[in-house]
Write a structure and sequence with these properties.
Arc Repressor Mutant, subunit A, five-stranded mixed β-sheet, about 20% strand, elongated, LysR family transcriptional regulator
Length: about 290
């Protein structure tokens, strides 16, 4: 059995705040003798001296200070838990998991996150990124409650799926790359001579897909779009990058746009969640993100 209770921590906290046991009794609306008894009983159970007593005034010992510092954290945590439980009972989920394609900038949701925080609804957010089919798979396998995905939309039932935007792509190379100085538009077969930087599909069980690679082309496969961008900036290879991610690079000259005879077509941006069984947080996010994002 635990010797330390939340009620005991509240007593210690009240004594420290008021400087006396009688003051703690007033603060907690209790009889002073019950405060004195509670402290004595706790010190006996812990075999520790928590207060130095000087008449009616009491001060915490080193052990008492340590207990109170950690104890106040526990009191705040319990209060937060009670608050979340109350709000969850009103229909808000304890946690909402949002997964987005790493093709999208990580700053995309900042304004929405600030608006959601203002609700003070008690729902914790878990926001992660996946690549290509991996985003859809996260929704299908229950690892996501809401997704923002790029590319082909699967024909699944039981989901709310809506196209909210399109993602445009630009073929980019480093300014010192040979393709930056080649006559344009560049024919497709000329790309075989250059290493492509490709992002690996993060799907675990669904069939993974490959985009923008030529048969037999030398490649470096990376984990996400930011690695691809950095590798291309370093001149290690070539490939298409989302326009929204490289606008500043093109302006600064750290990447150069190359026109191809066969450019990559824009791809749809999808918002998706489960149908029917969502809580208030998922519904709020679905409505909030149901707009052009780029």
């Amino acid at each position: 059995m635990m010797k330390l209770s939340l009620e005991a921590i509240q007593v210690i906290d009240a004594i420290d705040r008021t400087g006396s046991m009688s003051g703690a009794a007033d603060l907690l609306h209790r009889v002073p003798s019950t405060i004195s008894y509670a402290v004595g009983k706790l010190e006996e159970q812990l075999n520790l001296k928590l207060f130095d007593r000087n008449g009616p005034k009491v001060t915490l010992t080193a052990a008492g200070i340590e207990l109170l510092q950690e104890g106040r954290w526990l009191l705040r945590a319990v209060a937060d838990l009670e608050n979340r439980l109350y709000k969850i009972a009103s229909g808000f989920e304890s946690e909402l998991r949002i997964v987005y394609d790493s093709l999208l900038p990580s700053t995309l949701l900042i304004d929405d996150l600030q608006a959601f925080a203002a609700l003070e609804c008690g729902t914790r957010l878990r926001i992660t990124s996946e690549e290509m089919t991996g985003v859809w798979e996260a929704l299908r396998e229950g690892r996501a409650d809401l997704i923002i995905a790029v590319g082909d939309c699967p024909s699944w039932g039981g989901y709310q799926i809506k196209q909210i935007d399109t993602v445009e792509f630009i073929f980019c190379v480093a300014p010192n790359h040979p393709l930056a100085h080649t006559k344009q538009p560049v024919p497709q077969d000329a790309l075989h001579a250059f290493t492509a930087i490709a992002v690996a599909d993060s799907a675990r069980s669904l069939p993974a897909k490959t985009i923008g690679l030529l048969s037999g082309q030398q490649r470096i496969t990376v984990a996400n779009i930011e690695m691809k961008r950095q590798f291309q900036r370093a001149g290690l290879g070539v490939g298409f990058l989302p326009k929204v991610l490289v606008a500043q690079d093109l302006q600064d000259g750290t990447l150069v746009a190359v026109t191809l005879e066969e450019p990559r077509q824009p791809e749809p941006l999808w918002l998706a969640t489960r149908s029917g069984d969502n809580g208030e947080a998922a519904n709020w996010w679905y409505k909030k993100l149901n707009r052009p994002l780029l």
